Amino acid sequence: MRLGSHVSTRKGYSGAARTALSIGAGAFQYFPKNPRSLSVKRFDRTDAELCRSISREHGLLSIAHTPYPTNLAIPAGDLREATVASLRNDLAIGEACGSVGIIVHFGKAKTKDPLQGYVHIIETLNDVLDGWEGECLLLLENQAGAGSPMGTTMEEMVRIRELSARPDRIGFCLDTCHAFASGIWKGNDWGAFAQKGTELGYMEHLHAVHLNDSVYPYGEHKDRHANFGTGYIGEVNLLNLLRSEAVSGLPVVLETAAGPDHTHREELGLIRSLLDA
């Protein structure tokens, strides 16, 4: 397990890697570009390659989180084209930075027929990954179920991956708050959850974890992150997950409120001390 947090790219991609090192992280997540836009970014490749170099030198793992407007379930048309172009841009940035993958939310259907939404997801994934030969993966993130039940189950993730044209370029990112909020993980049953994931073929393609506690109780479909051990999932349940072989070697990143120094240094230190106890 490589524990870390989301960090700013205000000082560039290499600056993000240096920030992660300065707070004692073994992994970090960053936005490859403006998180509120699907615009394609002309990025500084030299800076991105320096990020890769720093990460390799210090054993850092990184993941990139795609912009929030990204919706894989978008129908064919101009917005689909913009989504595909944006994701291919994110893959290029992630590849240059040496990142494990780019995180993308599963998607929400814009049609009355939810099955058509799944078809759109597969079409979008195929368009994005057509011809992609980089090592950077596209990592599907489970959703909390707010407004739509799509993307909340491991079964959906696995099946979409299987039906895509490039399953070798697709993996998964597990968000703990989303899993708890959607009702697929009770918090105190990690062993059973991991076993089910193994049987389904989910765990073997898990490449990243978002380590978030939950402000709201189990099964309320509300996506609101709490700092480690301060929410309804709780310290003991999250530590059980962290000690699991299923997350060994993976980037595990906090997406929680930063501390007084505007970093996650204190929260990371707390988690490490609890793991060492």
Which tags fit this structure?
TIM Barrel; alpha/beta; eight-stranded parallel β-barrel; 16% strand; 39% helix; 277 residues; two-stranded antiparallel ribbon; globular
Describe the structure.
This protein has 277 residues and is of the alpha/beta class. The strands form two sheets. It has an eight-stranded parallel β-barrel. Helices cover 39% and strands 16% of the residues. It has one domain: TIM Barrel (Alpha-Beta Barrel), CATH 3.20.20. Helix 2 links the parallel strand 2 (27-30) and strand 3 (61-65).
The tally of beta strands, per DSSP, is 10
- Helical coverage, percent range: 25-40%
Strand content: 15-25%
Shape: globular
CATH architecture: Alpha-Beta Barrel
List the helices and strands and how they pair.
Elements: E1 2-6, H1 12-22, E2 27-30, H2 45-58, E3 61-65, H3 78-97, E4 101-105, H4 114-129, E5 137-141, H5 154-163, E6 170-175, H6 176-182, H7 190-200, E7 206-210, E8 213-214, E9 225-226, H8 235-242, E10 251-254, H9 265-276
Parallel strand pairs: 1-2, 1-10, 2-3, 3-4, 4-5, 5-6, 6-7, 7-10
Antiparallel strand pairs: 8-9
